[in-house]
Amino acid sequence: MPSFSWRVWPGLVFVLLPNATAAEETSLLDGWHEIWFFRFVLNLLGYSTIIVPGYLLISYFRRTNYLEKGSGICYPVVKACVFGSEDKTSLLDSGSASSRTDGDSGSSFKQAVKLTFCAAGLQASYLTWGVLQERVMTRSYGSTTPEEGEERFTDSQFLVFMNRILALTVAGLWCLMFKQPRHGAPMYKYSFASLSNIMSSWCQYEALKFISFPTQVLAKASKVIPVMLMGKIVSQKSYEYWEYFTALLISVGVSMFLLSSSEDKHPSTVTTFSGIIILVGYIVFDSFTSNWQDNLFKYKMSSVQMMFGVNMFSCLFTVGSLLEQGAFFDSLAFMMRHSEFAFHAVLLSVCSACGQLFIFYTIN
Q1: How far is CA 95 from CA 89, 107, 177, 204, 298, in A?
Q2: Contact 188, 58 (CB under 8 A)
């Protein structure tokens, strides 16, 4: 018997050790995936698999002077994506200018009604969106069978994809139904605003795991100074001293509110250091997005064309990263298991798309 045990034991070790090692690696990977910074880097690596080849292609077409030498079926696509069709202008085209002039025409009563409609639409869209955002990211969804426990949805990137795919659809249908200005901007330039936009949205969702929703809303209200500073860097804008002073007063007021605390504060509403870092990331990315979009409006385009271009690249980046991480089908499976989550995710996307349309209509 001792001899038999001595011979069998190495074989058992050889068979069992790979399984134990695999289980340990799986546990380690799951542990790393719980860290928000790891997920942040993983998302960036996924986006880089699209950005790097795109950058190399654009550099190649520009270096070989493809605009003059190119021909064939791919020529119009390459020209639209890399070079564009028209030069920059300081203003929108006459069609866009006339639409803004038309917006200013009419009686004061009609303008007041339109403004009230825009304000009500924005409030309804983003208040509903905010409530759903907090519900999805901070609470669990019940199981479909008694044997299963409750689950919490954790993939912020999938929610960003859901928002962007619906916004892309709405903008595309709008462009097909209504006449738009002739598009002149190189399509690749939308990718800069798109990347910063999806990162700011990711930070916005992810921050709710570490801070309360009211804290996030108040912090977003204090991003006036970062937006102004980013405007000086990206767009070389200049501001009056009273504008800086007003922005400073807003930021100080919000900071005083955030720093005030009570001893009976619920643990779930405590703001953590990770939450502050993610919130700062949101403010930086969002500040860049608005200023870069403002620069793009120097080309001839409408607001809906801007919406379509940015959301197109956002869908490309997010779905590519989700597929590479294997998270896309996991999120779809979560939706299949929890119909309530599917309803919330779709309604969240509808509110986001409607909010964008109300913003553009208000600006117009």
Answers
A1: 14, 22, 16, 36, 14
A2: yes
Closest listed residue to residue 338, CA positions, set 130, 135, 127: 135
Longest Cα separation, the chain:
102
pTM: 0.78
39-96, pLDDT tens digit by residue?
Answer: 899 999 999 999 999 999 999 999 988 888 877 788 888 888 998 875 554 444 444 4
State pLDDT tens for residues 99-150.
444 444 457 888 889 889 988 998 899 889 888 888 888 888 875 555 556 8
Decide if pLDDT at 273 tops 90. no
Rounded CA gap, 330 and 52, in Å? 27
| CA 264 – CA 361 distance, rounded (Å) | 44
- Give the pLDDT score at 266: 44
The C-alpha atoms of residue 89 and residue 94 are separated, in whole angstroms, by: 11
Contact 260, 241 (CB under 8 A): no
